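in:
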């Protein structure tokens, strides 16, 4: 980890804003970088490449308005020149990934947020935190509305992420309410789409990759637990609208279509390989029973709601995984 002193390039004609995307080489961050770059902004993509992958932004790197900095936000980030907005998308989000180094996950949420908040204060930049539906823990209510305070285990395997994100919300709220910073908090529900890592470990990528490889789909528990899946483009649109709004309190962003994991398995099997079996595996500890966002506030404040159904989103996602797996096979054949 290192502190960075970096002078920005002179901005070209048509420049709009200078925007830092921390975690910009991850699944969500890279989609956000692409969207903001397309809108004419200059992007500083910051990533430690722990779970992010430079390949996710390689197609953006030829654009002179895009800069990549390898940096872990646990260390302060120093940048010369103006910054208008900061999106903090930096943190492993898949349970097996964030549980690999729980202390680092917690530090990323808390110290990383603090470092970016201090940078935002120095630059007088707006800053948005990618929080999570995990702040609701294993919710006792459905739908989960922003005023629900959650049911989180402080000492379980998910705590490093859940409590880290909860603490980061507190930091954002303090800087927004009492230090005059323009802060935004997005509570992001399960999101999927192209550029998820095939070995990420989350259910959508696992099921698609398993089906494409002709393997049994691993259903944890009895598969009756629910999740609500939002397509990445919808989510990115919600983030951009939230940043542009005046709302400092948390806003849920997710797709309220709610499915059991068995229903998801059926959908993936119907699209890829209906004769494949499912196999049941133990339910991980503290795995939430249900999850479905109340998006009334997002609708009212941002004029936002998801447009892409799970069926359509899977149709957009499966070909990307198919291409990625066959590229890996071609590469493997060349090496061996
Ligand atoms: N899950 C599953 N099979 C898998 C991976 C996950 O049945 O191969 C389940 C997991 O137990 C959880 C749900 O799918 O109930 C969503 O898991 P994911 O890791 O995608 O997200 P999160 O638990 O963070 O919502």
């Amino acid at each position: 980890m290192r502190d960075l002193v970096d002078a920005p390039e002179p901005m070209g004609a048509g420049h709009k804003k200078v925007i830092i995307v921390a975690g910009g080489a991850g699944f969500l961050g890279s989609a956000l970088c692409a969207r903001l770059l397309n809108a004419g902004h200059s992007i500083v993509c910051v990533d430690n490449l722990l779970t992010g992958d430079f390949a996710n932004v390689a197609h953006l790197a030829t654009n002179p308005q895009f800069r990549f900095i390898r940096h872990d936000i646990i260390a302060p980030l120093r940048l010369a020149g103006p910054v208008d907005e900061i999106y903090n998308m930096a943190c492993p989000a898949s349970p097996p990934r964030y549980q690999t180094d729980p202390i680092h996950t917690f530090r990323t949420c808390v110290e990383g947020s603090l470092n970016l908040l201090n940078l935002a204060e120095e630059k007088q930049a707006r800053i948005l935190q990618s929080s999570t539906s995990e702040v609701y823990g294993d919710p006792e209510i459905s739908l989960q509305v922003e005023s629900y305070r959650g049911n989180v285990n402080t000492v379980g395997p998910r705590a490093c992420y859940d409590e880290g994100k909860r603490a980061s919300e507190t930091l954002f709220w303090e800087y927004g309410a009492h230090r005059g910073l323009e802060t935004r908090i997005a509570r992001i529900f399960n999101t999927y789409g192209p550029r998820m890592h095939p070995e990420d470990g989350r259910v959508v990528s696992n099921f698609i990759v398993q089906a494409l490889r002709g393997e049994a789909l691993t259903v944890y528990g009895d598969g009756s637990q629910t999740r609500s899946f939002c397509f990445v483009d919808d989510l990115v649109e919600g983030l951009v609208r939230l940043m542009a709004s005046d709302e400092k309190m948390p806003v849920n962003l997710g797709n309220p279509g709610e499915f059991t994991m068995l229903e998801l398995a059926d959908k993936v099997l119907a699209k890829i390989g209906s004769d494949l079996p499912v196999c049941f595996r133990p339910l991980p500890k503290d795995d939430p029973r249900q999850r479905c966002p109340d998006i009334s506030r997002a609708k009212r404040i941002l004029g936002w709601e998801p447009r892409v159904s799970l069926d359509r989103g899977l149709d957009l996602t499966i070909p990307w995984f198919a291409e990625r797996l066959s590229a890996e096979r071609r590469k493997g054949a060349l090496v061996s």
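note: Residues 94-95, 190, 202-203, 206, 218-220, 225, 227, 261, 283-284, 287 surround uridine-5'-diphosphate (CB under 6 Å).
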